[in-house]
Amino acid sequence: MPASLAKNRSFLYQIKSAVAGYIRTLGAYLRRFLMLTPSKSSAGITAMGGFLFFGSLMAALAGTTLVWPGTVLDRIWALNAPAYQRLAPFGRIIGIPFLFLSVILLLAGIGWFGRRLWGWRLAVAIIATQVAGDLVNLFLGDFVRGGVGFVIAGALLFYLLRPRVRAGFA
Q: Which residues of 14-47 are buried (b: 16+ CB within 10 A; e: fewer)?
């Protein structure tokens, strides 16, 4: 195995470990400081909350590296170099909305794990926006990305709108 491949795998493992730690830490913070009582959650509820926090982390990383380029965090773009090539020329103009998205996703995750109605509504709005974006991609001719994204986001939206899921939020 070439040294660069081993280095990239090591870097990806470090990212994966950091994200897992980030999610665990946020969960502990929410329970302790916001006095959220842990309740019996289905795997889907937990996974959706983790997805919101993971999205927040990724949007924060993207926004940070676009607003302040040249940091050690720029290495994360090795995961999606074509996206960086398209976004980097816009720098701050696109980085700041990514940071805003990160805050919205973080708030959604906090509301989600707190079983707040506003958290559920925010999660539904986020996923519905993703469904709409995937439909636009599909109609613009990006059939693979738009189609796959639509199916995945549509399934998530279907899950969120199920009465049993909605009933879990006060």
A: ebeeebeeebeebbeebeeeeebeeeeeeeebee
